[in-house]
TrEMBL record:
Name under which the protein is recorded: Vitelline membrane outer layer 1-like protein
Recorded GO CC terms: extracellular space
Keywords assigned by UniProt, alphabetized: Signal
Signal peptide limits: 1-22
InterPro entries: VOMI (IPR005515), VOMI_sf (IPR036706)
């Protein structure tokens, strides 16, 4: 798989070809991956797919770190998936909704494979006297468990820690190709919580055409 420097260079070249907001290519989806412990706070963002003939192989999380000085963290604010072809040519990235808080963390990548499964660590509702954050961390598998990528280093996770949900996996000969996130937009009146739920979409690896209807 490509080095990080090569990926960034390819991304700069590919950026001119990224879809504009509101354009949604249709892909042949084989399965929709869901979080077993997702919450219904906030609104679903736009559905975004990798361009035709590409699938997600790199990922990067946006995260607001825990701080003893802050009483209303949001933890996980976005997941960015970078899409490549079978020949490892970068076609762009997809993100759905990006929260305004936090910083983008280190990029993580599969080695000679695509992302195929996901699960999340979610903090259940904490009540009126504690801080809600919803999704705290995510793990994605490459090639059905060949590698497990953790988006955020555990040392920066919110205290207390939530629970990991069940794995949701693509069917055989499919890989992740799309994303849609539910995001709780920060407001002055209520407790902020960042990303609360997520859908990832699987597409067949032998896909030859998009759906046009």
């Amino acid at each position: 798989m490509r080095t990080f420097a090569c990926l960034l260079l390819s991304l700069l070249v590919a950026s001119c070809c990224l879809l504009t907001y509101g354009q949604i290519p249709r892909r042949l989806v084989t399965k929709t991956l869901t979080l077993s412990n997702g919450l219904d706070w906030g609104n679903m963002g736009p559905l975004e797919y990798c361009p035709e003939g590409s699938w997600a192989a790199y990922m990067q999380g946006k995260f607001e770190e825990y701080s003893f000085l802050e009483t209303d963290e949001t933890a996980f604010n976005a997941l960015r998936l970078y899409c490549i072809t079978h020949e490892e040519a970068l076609t762009g990235f997809i993100v759905s909704t990006e929260g305004e808080k936090g910083e983008w963390q280190e990029m993580r990548s599969c080695h000679d494979s695509f992302l195929t499964s996901m699960r999340a660590r979610v903090l259940p509702p904490q009540g009126a006297l504690a801080d809600d954050v919803a999704v705290q961390n995510m793990q994605l598998e490459c090639n059905y468990g060949q590698e497990i990528l953790t988006v955020i280093d555990g040392a920066y996770a919110k205290i207390p820690l939530g629970n990991w949900g069940e794995w949701s996996a693509c069917p055989k000969d499919s890989a992740i190709c799309g994303i849609q996130t539910r995001y709780n937009k920060p407001t002055i009146a209520v407790d902020d919580a960042g990303v609360s739920d997520m859908l990832l979409f699987c597409c067949a690896l032998n896909e030859t055409a998009t759906i046009t209807n």
